[in-house]
Write a structure and sequence with these properties.
The complex is a heterotrimer of chains A (388), B (387) and C (246). By secondary structure, chain A is an all-alpha fold. Chain A contains 13 helices and two strands. Chain B is globular and about 70 Å long. Classes of the chains: A mainly alpha (388), B mainly alpha (387), C alpha/beta (246).
């Protein structure tokens, strides 16, 4: 076998296949983690029948969904109805393929970056472009079902996803400014060179990115397109069986990719904490891939935590938050980061220190605020006695 | 507004301005198989985008002809039927029914039985309000309070089970008193239940009361001021959240309520958030009442749980009406007796049914997402609406 | 056990009225007068409604239960009679509740007066009773509540045939209550804005709470196509399972 065949055909094929399998498996395992985690947060057990601690529950679920009857509404647009889930799932996988999971590794005599696709110099642009395609999946799924609740869900998601792409894009631009590159690998290397994760100078950008990411993945508190108590199932009301499972996998795949991108842009990707501090080098025992996976996993836990904590926004409030709050903040932040980046690495460090101090101060102030003040003012009277 | 009558076109004027893009309103069938209609409520919505132009409730999916069945049963046999109306608060249903028969019979209920009845009522109120809190939060997407509130509810249902053998359809009152005396040690268990209760309610409040999203979703939603509330016949927490301190336990007292100390929490903004606050405050007040009942029952042990009731219950001919403050509002029974051993006519005044009437007015102009908040805030049980 | 004298009063003294009968064998009720104590002159006193159970004649006389007392002298009733002449046909008090028999023709006027002048702003309940063999067959009962008059309640009673004036113009809450009465009894409320069935389904035939409606219900087909089921559906008149309330 010639070297080029291995290098250009076999290895990409294997890595691509691995990515698809990884997304599907990770989505399955993630459902188990989510259900167990929610169970812990909600003083109940969660799945506990199939396998140890219910671990194989997700396999049982997959088997059930695959063998379930695939119901298509009789007046649906059949082709588009089929296309919807695929349009949502494909971008989720492609985006994960563009994220580097680790530096170069050598396996079976082949040295290759741990990266499904090549290290593109426009990777971030491609990610933004590809991930916006997912919106079409949701809209078309909602529209083609020929039913009113999915239609409402599809329209909601169209508005929501487009609105939140904007602050998300600006947050990513802030990271690009700090790194000076669009390549994912170079962004990670830049964080090593700067000696500081971009999360500190880019605190606001990270916050914006993560909030928009939660909105992009339709998770609580922005789960309006599939708000169960309002729109039954939202855009996937009319889906069942394997097609529904694909929607489900894409949601979790999207969660993973949002976490992966956030890790890469703001948390140093596969780098260990403080990559330039020599005496912390014992941390290198853990391979880079696991540092990367661990950071992504933390993001996923935050998603689950959100789900257990928050009620859901209303649609107009969601749009107001996106356009009236996040967008101006992201613009101001972009300006600030650009100024700091002009100054170089020192500027980034100063900006990071200032932001961390501000956030810490804000937390202390919030902690001291009396909690129930507004309640007493709202109640007309704490004690009212009415005698006949 | 007072000139227009509900259900007519005049009450729901179209939104201002021409419809966008020349589109017309969409008719949306909300329910009866919808996750947040609390049973089988069906609403026919007219929506302009997501804004509700009109909402028309369509009820009756759970109609079982309970009032017809009442007429075929003797007076004591009616009690279990009343359980099935508001099935999350059956003790108060039993109570309202036995009160009206006792009123007609002129039976004196022993003090001990009265205290136990009040105790059961208040525990039922706690369990009903707690379930309301759970489902209302769930409607707005907060899933965690649901599981936490079931701590309280499970304990209460276990206590009910120990007292009368049933958890939901209690059948726990008899004309003239109670079916059975308390089991030994029951009062201590109730007291043990009340101890962590305040702390648990604090936890619910911590999850919701100051939660920004919760406040954004509930403040100013479904406003129905005091005047409109009375016009629509709204009672219970909905009326109290509008600022009217009116509670049947104080206004038309029954049983031993005049001897008990409790406050009537009152809101002032008449919106969903105030109704939430009122209900949470009522949880705490109910605990106060439970504690007072426990104190009295522990100080005054006895066995007398039934008054002197004739073997065959034949109230004199005539009409009578008696009402209790059910968790949802005024629950009344309107009895027309003809001198026989069966009610000639027994009509229920169900709070859910009456309160649901105002839903179109409360929901109009809001978004679909608010509609579930409004349905939740009225606190309906379809078993009672449809009977 | 019972130290406290409040626990076990051997002979409880009922506060509201005299005690219920309990002494002799409660074989059957005495053939009481009409439930609506003294039927109004307008209400065709001849056709007395039958009690729910067949009354066994010659029951021993026993202490009667609470008796209605005349309440037409109450200021509230007098004021109503003066404000809406001819509206009050009779008034009595029974177990602490005041009932005024109203002329159906003056019902809305009387309600308007009670709401505006007397402060009965809250309509608690509106329902009907079927006296199968009486001439104006139904009694419509309204229960009013006044917050301003010390939580006073007042029952209005109007003997009507199959049509009755609607009070939805007075209290909004009467809307569904009247729809329910229409659904269950077939009493049409004139002036109601939206008189449709509410608890039974659209297209249902028959009015379930009428005394001649079988408890077992009627056949669904009969409910939709009454002309094809001449006997009203359900168990036929000769069917032993058929149980029609008296």
């Amino acid at each position: 076998m010639s070297e080029s065949l291995v290098h250009y055909v076999l290895v990409p094929f294997v890595k691509g296949l691995l990515t698809v399998i990884l997304v599907a498996t990770a989505a399955g395992i993630l459902t188990w983690i989510e259900r167990r985690g929610l169970g812990r947060l909600q003083i109940r057990k969660g799945p506990n029948r199939v396998g140890p601690a219910g671990f194989f529950q997700w396999i049982a679920d997959v088997v059930k969904l695959v063998f379930k009857e695939d119901v298509v509404p009789s007046r649906a647009e059949k082709v588009i109805h089929l296309l919807g889930p695929l349009l949502l799932f494909t971008p989720a996988v492609v985006v994960l393929g563009l994220v580097p999971w680790g530096p170069e590794v050598t396996l079976f005599g082949v040295t290759t970056p741990l990266h499904a696709a090549a290290d593109l110099n426009v990777a971030l642009l491609l990610i933004l472009a590809v991930s916006s395609i997912g919106v079409y999946g949701i809209i078309l799924a909602g529209w083609s079902s020929n039913s009113k609740y999915p239609l409402l869900g599809g329209l909601r998601s169209a508005a929501q996803l487009i609105s939140y792409e904007v602050p998300m894009g600006f947050a990513i631009v802030a990271a690009v400014l700090m790194a000076g590159s669009l390549s994912m690998v170079e962004i990670i290397e830049a964080q090593k060179e700067a000696g500081i994760w971009f999360v500190f100078p880019g605190l606001v950008a990270f916050f914006l990115y993560f909030v928009s990411g939660v909105a992009e993945t339709n998770r609580t508190p922005f789960d309006l397109p599939e708000a169960e108590s309002e729109l039954v199932g939202g855009f996937h009301t009319e889906y069942s069986g394997f097609r529904w499972a694909i929607f489900f996998m894409s949601e979790y795949g999207n969660m993973i990719s949002i976490g992966a991108i956030a890790t890469t842009l703001f948390f140093g990707g596969w780098l260990r904490p403080f990559p330039n501090v020599a005496w912390l080098s014992f941390l290198d025992v853990i391979p880079p891939f696991f540092w990367f996976a661990g950071k992504v996993f933390l993001f996923l836990l935050v998603y689950i935590w959100f789900r257990a904590t928050f009620p859901r926004y209303r649609f107009d409030q969601l749009m107001a938050l996106g356009w009236k709050a996040l967008l101006p903040i992201s613009l101001a932040n972009l300006f600030l980061v650009a100024l700091a980046a002009l100054w170089g690495a020192a500027g980034l460090k100063v900006l990071g220190a200032v932001l961390v101090l501000l956030v810490a101060g804000g937390l202390v102030a919030a902690w001291r605020r009396p909690a129930r003040a507004s309640v007493t003012t709202r109640m007309a009277a704490e004690k009212v006695e009415v005698r006949a | 507004m007072s000139e227009t009558t509900p259900g007519t076109a005049a009450q729901f004027p179209p939104l201002e301005g021409p419809p966008l893009l020349g589109l017309h309103e969409m008719e949306l069938n909300f329910g009866p198989q919808h996750p947040s209609t609390h049973g089988v409520l069906r609403l026919v919505l007219k929506v302009d985008g997501e804004r509700i132009v009109s909402a028309r409730p369509d009820i009756g999916y759970l109609h079982r002809g309970t009032e017809k069945l009442f007429e075929t049963e003797t007076f004591p046999m009616v009690v279990p039927h009343t359980d099935r109306m508001d099935y999350v608060a059956s003790a108060t249903n039993n109570h309202a029914y036995v009160l009206v028969v006792e009123k007609l019979l002129g039976v004196e209920v022993p003090k001990r039985a009265q205290y136990i009845r009040v105790l059961l009522d208040e525990m039922q109120r706690i369990s009903s309000h707690v379930l309301w809190l759970a489902t209302a939060a769930l409607d707005l997407g907060a899933i965690t309070p649901f599981f936490y509130t079931f701590r309280e509810r499970e304990v209460i249902l276990d206590l009910f089970e120990e007292y009368c053998g049933a958890r939901l359809t209690l059948n726990c009152m008899r004309i003239g008193g109670l079916p059975v005396d308390l089991t030994p040690g029951w009062l201590e268990k109730v007291r043990a239940f009340t101890e962590p209760f305040e702390k648990n309610v604090d936890e619910y409040e911590e999850l919701l009361t100051e939660n920004r999203i919760w406040k954004q979703r509930t403040i100013g939603i479904g406003v129905l001021d005091e005047k409109r509330c009375i016009e629509w016949g709204m009672t219970g927490p909905v009326l109290r959240a509008a600022g009217k301190a009116w509670d049947i336990r104080r206004a038309i007292p029954y049983e031993v309520y005049p001897e008990l100390e409790f406050d009537i929490p009152v809101g002032k903004n008449a919106d969903t958030y105030d109704r939430y606050l009122v209900r949470v405050a009522e949880l705490r007040q109910s605990r106060r009442i439970v504690l007072q009942c426990l104190d009295w029952l522990e100080k005054n042990p006895g066995t007398e749980i039934r008054g002197k009731v004739p073997r065959v219950i034949k109230p004199p001919a005539g009409e009578a009406y008696a009402a209790v403050e059910a968790p949802k509002g005024e629950l009344g029974f309107h009895l027309v007796a003809s001198g026989g051993n069966k009610p000639y006519r027994l009509h229920v005044r169900p709070p859910s049914f009456i309160n649901l009437q105002a839903l179109p007015e409360m929901a109009q102009g809001h978004l679909v997402g608010d509609l579930v908040a409004v349905i939740g805030t009225i606190d309906i049980v379809l078993g009672e609406v449809d009977r | 056990m019972s130290e406290d004298k409040t626990i076990s009063p051997e002979t409880p003294a009922p506060e509201p009225v005299s005690k219920a009968p309990e002494t002799p064998a409660p074989a059957a009720p005495e053939p009481r007068p009409v439930p609506a104590a003294a039927p109004a002159p307008a209400a065709a006193a001849a056709a007395a409604p039958k009690p729910a159970v067949p009354a066994v004649p010659a029951a021993p006389p026993k202490p009667a239960g609470p008796k209605p007392t005349d309440a037409s002298g109450k200021p509230l009733v007098a004021a109503l009679a003066a404000a809406v002449p001819g509206s009050v046909l009779d008034a009595y008090e029974f177990v602490g509740e005041t009932t005024v028999k109203v002329d159906p023709g003056k019902l809305v006027e009387a309600c308007r007066h009670l709401k505006d002048a007397e402060g009965f702003t809250y309509l608690v309940d509106l329902t009907a009773v079927d006296w199968k063999e009486r001439d104006p067959r139904f009694d419509v009962l309204l229960l009013l509540h006044s917050f301003s008059r010390g939580q006073e309640r007042l029952r209005l009673k109007a003997a009507v045939g199959e049509s009755c004036p609607s009070v939805t113009g007075v209290w909004l809450t009467a809307n569904w209550m009247e729809r329910e009465v229409f659904d269950m009894y077939g009493v049409r409320f004139d002036g109601h804005p939206d008189l449709r069935r509410i608890l039974t389904w659209d297209g249902f035939q028959g009015h379930p709470l009428r005394k001649d409606f079988p408890v077992e219900g009627i056949d669904t087909g009969a409910a939709i196509y009454p002309e094809r089921y001449p006997e009203g559906g359900g168990p036929g008149p000769k069917d032993p399972n058929r149980k029609v309330l008296s």
